[in-house]
Design brief:
With 242 residues, this protein is mainly α. The protein is built from 7 helices and 2 strands; from the N terminus they run H-H-E-H-H-E-H-H-H.
Length: 242
């Protein structure tokens, strides 16, 4: 239980989750919103730029991770540890949105997600160890009626201690998962806006094509003054003016 006592990594401390990912992309501007119109996209670090990772590897949609690509740490580093975890959920922490208007915000979300996934590995590993220790303690505590009361109490205390620590770790797991899901929710909102823009643009192109096919280039239609208000709207406006 050395991790419980020392917590040298700081992953299980109460205030760590609040500080996790509270970092900014060094781009000379804010990172809490989308890029304004006309603003030049910032130059991102290689490990945060989804365009620099080459082929994008993603998990199945059934895992719930719809936005994370495999981070560059798991494809460029030849150490055994990243490759060992490469097929697990922790590796897929790079947001796949590359729209220039949202690249700064998504880089910030990727940085938070990468840090959350790193810390989540520590919590998950400790949770597994404590869960196994709890099962072992419960098996040892299953004593016959002839056992001494002192032995039963000692083993019961060990079961209660492991259960208490496991519940603390489960709370930590839930906090990390909630933070990750909040990042996914932001990505869902961004992709929904981008899809709406794409659908409106497709509708505009299809209506423009249909109008061009319906009217000849020298038709009077193209010289007619366009009025966006309908006759009914103009009638209501005249009533309001009165």
């Amino acid at each position: 239980m050395a991790l419980r006592r020392s917590l040298s990594s700081g992953a299980l401390r109460g205030g760590t989750l609040r500080k996790t990912g509270e970092v900014t992309v060094r781009s000379g501007g804010r990172t809490d919103g989308a890029m304004s119109d006309g603003e030049t996209p910032p130059k991102l670090p290689r490990y945060l730029d989804v365009k620099q990772i080459g082929k994008r590897k993603k998990l199945s949609n059934s895992t719930g991770n719809l936005h994370g690509c495999m981070a560059g740490d798991y494809s460029r580093v030849n150490w055994p540890l990243p490759k060992m975890f490469g097929d697990e959920k922790y590796a897929y922490s790079l947001i796949d949105i590359d729209d220039p208007r949202h690249v700064k915000e998504c880089a910030s979300l990727s940085k938070k997600l990468i840090r959350l996934q790193y810390d989540q590995q520590i919590v998950d590993l400790e949770w597994r160890k404590v869960y196994k220790a709890l099962l072992d303690a419960e098996q040892k505590a299953d004593l016959p009626d002839s056992a001494k009361d002192a032995t039963k109490q000692l083993l019961k205390k060990e079961v209660d201690r492991q259960m208490k620590y496991l519940l603390e770790l489960q709370e930590q797991k839930d906090m990390y998962e909630d933070s990750i899901q909040s990042i996914y929710a932001k990505c869902d909102a961004i992709k929904a806006d981008l899809k709406k823009e794409a659908d409106l643009e497709d509708l505009r192109c299809s209506m423009e094509k249909a109008t061009k096919e319906k009217n000849a280039p020298d038709s009077e239609f193209w010289r007619r003054k366009f009025n966006c208000r309908s006759q009914h709207q103009r009638g209501n406006q005249s009533l309001l003016d009165l």
